[in-house]
Every structure is written in C-alpha cells, then in structure tokens.
Design a protein that fits this description.
mainly beta, about 0% helix, 12 strands, five-stranded antiparallel beta sheet, about 120 residues, globular
C-alpha cells in the first residue's frame, strides 16, 4: 500500500532509526536545515552508508500521513499555529517558519503538546 518503501541511500549518509528522512537529488538522507529537499517519512531502521556510494544501501521508510517530531527551541510551534505549515529543522525536529528560506517543508501541523508536534507529512 505504499506505507513502507525502500529508498536508495545517499553516499556518506548515516540515518538513525526513527529519524525524519528526506529525498535529496533522488537519494534518502536524514533531514537537516536545507532548502530543496522533499520529506519522505520516518526511518524504520538505522542505515550506515558513510563509506558507500549513492544507492549502495537502502532504507525502509514509513510513509503514513501523520508523524511526530520534536518542537524547535529557536523557532517553536504554538497552539495558535494549528493547520499551518511546518518546516524541517533536523532529523527529529520541526520549526514554525522556513527560517528565511533555509528550511524545506515538512507538512501541516495538526497537534501541539508538551512532548512535541504532530504533523501531516507533505510526502514527496
């Protein structure tokens, strides 16, 4: 059903289980503050391709519609931001804004609590 897909991993990438995964130039990598990457889902496993070339390894990525992430400390999402867009800060954190056009879109905020942020992923 497309809820779990195997993606080719980028050269030099180390992706931890549970990390937010993006696709950059066709290859999976962990999310960072970077423009132009596409949100792919959450890593089901850890994959170390630090010594490999593009596509030497694959990673299973969960692509369900709702995801959980930590809330940014420097650009936090508040209750008033419900149903606004949120942006990728790193492989476990989403932020309120695009950081002056430095962060790629994660998805739409659907819940905020003391543990973090639930969002509908803008799937690639």
């Amino acid at each position: 059903g497309g809820h779990l897909v195997a993606l080719a991993v980028a050269a030099g990438a180390m992706i931890h289980g549970g990390a937010i995964v993006v696709v950059d130039a066709g290859y999976a990598n962990k999310a960072t503050t970077k423009i132009g990457v596409k949100f792919a889902g959450i890593a089901e496993e850890a994959v170390d391709n630090t010594g490999g070339a593009n596509g030497d390894k694959t990673i299973n990525v969960r692509r369900e519609r709702v995801f959980f992430a930590k809330n940014s400390v420097g650009d936090p999402i508040a209750q008033a931001d419900l149903f606004n867009q949120c942006y990728l800060e790193d492989d476990e954190t989403v932020a309120k804004t695009n950081g002056g056009n430095t962060r790629s879109l994660a998805g739409r905020i659907i819940q905020v609590d003391s543990n973090g942020v639930w969002f509908e992923g803008e799937l690639a």
